Amino acid sequence: MRRALNVGFFVCVLACAVALYVRLQRHAPASTATAPAAVPPPAAPSPGPRLASAPSAPDAGHAHPSALLPEHALVQQIRALVKTEPQRAEALAREARRRFPEGVESDERDALLVDALINQQRIGAARDETYYYFDHHPDGRFAEHLVVMTGVHPH
Question: At the topology level of CATH, where does 65-150 sit?
Answer without folding.
Answer: 1.25.40
